[in-house]
Design brief:
One of its GO terms (biological process) is DNA integration. The protein is mostly helical and 65 residues long. It has four helices and no strands.
């Protein structure tokens, strides 16, 4: 059975994985600081780290061209 906390966690995780700005996620969750949101939820998915690496690589090589 899912709890309200489980649904809140899912909501936050899906938004972050979808690329929603962490500031927006923090505001939706009622966190006073973005750091709280990132500390609590960004560790959940390795996809977030992989996506960051891909975006950096694309930006870097686009600038080098």
């Amino acid at each position: 059975m899912e709890t309200i906390h489980d649904l809140r966690h899912l909501h936050a995780t899906l938004m972050l994985e979808s690329g929603v700005n962490p500031k927006v996620v923090a505001e939706r969750l009622g966190h006073s600081r973005v750091g709280v949101t990132l500390d609590l939820y960004s560790h959940v998915s390795s996809d977030i780290q992989e996506e960051a690496a891909i975006r950096f690589e694309e930006a870097f090589f686009q600038q080098s061209s």
